[in-house]
Design goal:
CATH superfamily: Aldolase class I
Distance between the termini: 17 Å
Radius of gyration: 17 Å
Strand order of the largest sheet: 1-2-3-4-5-6-7-8
CATH architecture: Alpha-Beta Barrel
Number of helices: 10
């Protein structure tokens, strides 16, 4: 079975869940996940942010603020029906598509009017996960946007329910890249070994952790210890940049990338808010080169989606 690094679009589309996990694991920490928002005006007007991310070397495209009740991605061809949005994005980019869902804790739910405000179609429910699977998503990430009140316990509970109905087909990723509205679960307290064990016990295939240097107290040493614990439990680990540092200078991105790789990350996530909607495109490219060099970066960029 091929490494994800070497797979073409048709090969990726044909992989089942276990084959996809194996392909990621076999790539030895050289897979880049680029988060993007389809609900905002794309950086390139009539080209989706996801397509732009793919052009800079992203291997997996993760959609944030995608509402299952009203599926839409700005920049998609007008002829595409809402239910075909994700499948068409996969066809256009040749990439695996993932979507965020949010597990809001009733004890911390926040009814704010900011851009990130929750909607029912983004909630981490089995119904929404099944809708995403039916629309073509291959990955669901249970996490939280700023201020929405997403707790680790709520994530674990949602994971258990979603795993029961879709765990055999969807790759399930869970964790937080910032406090998501809960102060007591922020900084160095954002995630513990107990949280990780709970996530894995409830069906997580991949645990999401803040990348070193992105959250106060999350040093390379601390992240490394948490990743080692995750991998001993049989799950993969994904480091994430969710603190707008995807909009920092290239040297900062190189440093975060190398610290994450040294910490043991199986996957590397880069966030969606360099400017709102996508990391700075040059930082997606810079991160890709840092973790795997120009050969694999250019290969991912140049490989035709028709292969």
């Amino acid at each position: 079975m091929k490494r994800y690094l070497d797979c073409s679009a048709s090969e990726l589309a044909a992989l089942d869940k276990q084959q996809l996990l194996h392909a990621i694991r076999a790539s030895e920490g050289r897979i880049l996940v680029s988060e993007c928002i389809g609900a905002t005006q794309p950086l390139l007007n009539n080209i989706t942010n996801a397509e732009l991310a793919a052009s800079q070397g992203a291997d997996i495209l993760l959609l944030n603020l995608f509402d299952t009740a009203s599926p839409a991605i700005a920049g998609m061809p007008q002829s595409i029906t809402p239910q075909e949005t994700l499948r068409e994005l996969q066809r256009l980019t040749g990439r695996i598509i993932g979507v965020n869902l949010e597990a809001v804790d009733p004890a911390f739910a926040s009814d704010h009017n900011e851009f990130w405000k929750m909607t029912a179609g983004r909630a981490a429910t089995p119904e929404n996960a099944l809708r995403l699977r039916d629309m073509g998503a291959r990955i669901v990430v249970l996490t939280g946007n700023p201020g929405n009140g997403v707790s680790n316990q709520a994530i674990a509970d949602a994971m258990k329910a979603i795993h029961a109905v879709a765990g055999d087909t969807l790759i399930l990723i869970t964790g937080k890249m910032h406090g998501a509205g809960i102060v007591r679960e922020s900084g160095s307290q954002i995630i513990s070994e107990q949280d990780i064990a709970l996530f894995v016990d409830n069906g997580a295939d991949v645990v999401l952790l803040p990348a070193p240097g992105t959250v106060p107290g999350m040093s390379q040493e601390k992240v490394s210890q948490l990743i080692a614990f995750t991998q001993r439990l049989g799950a993969l680990a994904m480091t994430a940049i969710g603190t707008s540092q995807e909009g920092a200078d290239r040297q900062t991105l190189r440093q975060i990338a190398l610290m994450s790789k040294m910490a043991g990350a199986d996957l590397h996530h880069i966030g969606d808010t360099g400017y709102l909607g996508l990391a700075l495109p040059e930082n997606i490219f810079t991160y890709s080169v840092a973790i795997r060099g120009v050969r694999h970066t250019y290969s991912r960029i140049a490989r035709s989606v028709n292969r």
